[in-house]
Design brief:
It contains four helices and no strands. It has about 120 residues and is mainly alpha-helical. It has a domain of about 70 residues. The longest helix is centred in the middle third of the chain and has 40 residues.
Length: about 120
């Protein structure tokens, strides 16, 4: 801030500092309102539910991928068996690739079916 030489400059500097103080006060009040709003129990529960939902959705994707890999691997093993036959090995690879693509295209439906299956298996009656 430049040095003040007259009372007019002093009054102007005071007016400018007071306006800056008003702006800072408004910003502080707004920040406090936002903090209080975020700490509101209803908003906290909403945030927790939103995070839990995203974790469940990620779990569904993981479950679908795991089922896809396991199914394709098992089908390949069933087709090829223990034989060293090249044709059976080739058919196993084609089946594995086909199952992976099928699972990738219909991931939502398979995830829904697998979720219902798991719920029915582990649901206490």
């Amino acid at each position: 801030m430049p040095s003040i030489q007259s009372t007019a400059q002093l009054k102007e500097a005071i007016r400018q500092l007071e306006s800056e103080r008003i702006v800072q006060k408004q910003q502080l009040e707004q920040s406090i309102r936002q903090t209080v709003d975020k700490l509101n129990p209803i908003n906290l529960l909403g945030d927790i539910l939103q995070e839990a939902t995203s974790v469940v959705l990620q779990g569904d994707r993981l479950l679908g991928s795991t089922i896809s890999l396991a199914t394709s691997f098992l089908l390949k093993r069933i087709i090829t068996g223990k034989s060293g036959n090249k044709i059976r090995t080739l058919l196993g690879l084609v089946a594995e690739f086909g199952i992976k693509n099928l699972m990738r295209k219909h991931r939502a439906a398979i995830g829904h079916i697998s979720q219902r299956l798991l719920l029915s298996l582990f649901h206490k009656k």
